[in-house]
């Protein structure tokens, strides 16, 4: 019998991120809901509690910015770079993220339901609860993150990878997945096992999932 091929048939996220051309450093931002800001650099600022619904940031850099309880519903982030964002409560439902990177993010509860993420890299953060219910994800890489609960209920995800992440609870009820790579990440529990269809896991993960898969199918295992 010929050796089994180790080449993956799962298509990886297609990322083409480049540094934003932010040239204008903003010391005291006057951001308003619905604003369109382009090429600006925000560093070590506090925007806690601000109403920024519908704002558009394009080719902007945010470093060490506090966004606790800021209203970012319907916000658009295009070719931006975020680092050390801090928000015990991050409210950005129905938001849009395109060709954007986030590094060392610290979110408590992140409300991102009904959002769209295209070409996004979330790298190295600690997040307690991430709500992406009914969102659309394409070409998304989540790497090196510690996530308490990742809620992907009803998502449509294409070319998404969780790489070297530690996730407490992964919820996949009603999810539609294509080329979603979960290898190299660990999960304490998974809800909505039917939603795993279209995902790629490794042999070790399969062994851990076996009891849950058997239970979901009504199988009894007796030695």
From TrEMBL:
Q: Which InterPro entries does the annotation name? A: 5peptide_repeat, Pentapeptide-BTB/POZ_domain
Record lineage: Bacteria, Bacillati, Actinomycetota, Actinomycetes, Micrococcales
Gene3D superfamilies referenced in this protein's UniProt entry, alphabetically: E3 ubiquitin-protein ligase SopA (2.160.20.80)
Name the chain's protein: Pentapeptide repeat-containing protein
Q: Which domain of life is it from?
A: Bacteria
Q: Tell me the Pfam families matching this sequence.
A: Pentapeptide
Signal peptide range equals none
**Ranges of Low complexity compositional bias?**
1-18
Region Disordered, as annotated, extends over 1-23
């Amino acid at each position: 019998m010929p050796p089994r091929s180790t080449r993956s048939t799962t298509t990886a996220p297609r990322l083409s991120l480049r540094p934003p051309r932010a040239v204008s450093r903003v010391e005291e931002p006057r951001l308003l809901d619905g604003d369109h800001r382009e090429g600006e650099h925000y560093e070590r600022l506090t925007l806690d509690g601000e109403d920024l619904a519908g704002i558009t940031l394009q080719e902007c850099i945010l470093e060490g910015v506090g966004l606790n309880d800021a209203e970012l519903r319907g916000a658009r982030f295009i070719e931006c770079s975020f680092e050390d964002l801090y928000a015990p409560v991050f409210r950005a439902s129905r938001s849009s993220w395109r060709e954007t990177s986030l590094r060392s993010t610290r979110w408590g509860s992140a409300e991102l339901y009904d959002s769209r993420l295209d070409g996004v890299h979330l790298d190295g953060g600690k997040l307690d609860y991430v709500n992406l219910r009914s969102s659309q994800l394409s070409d998304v890489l989540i790497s090196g993150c510690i996530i308490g609960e990742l809620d992907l209920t009803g998502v449509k995800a294409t070319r998404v990878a969780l790489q070297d992440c530690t996730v407490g609870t992964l919820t996949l009820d009603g999810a539609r997945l294509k080329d979603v790579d979960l290898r190299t990440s660990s999960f304490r529990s998974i809800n909505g096992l039917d939603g795993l269809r279209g995902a790629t896991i490794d042999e070790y993960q399969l062994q851990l999932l076996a009891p849950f898969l058997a239970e979901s199918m009504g199988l009894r295992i007796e030695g």
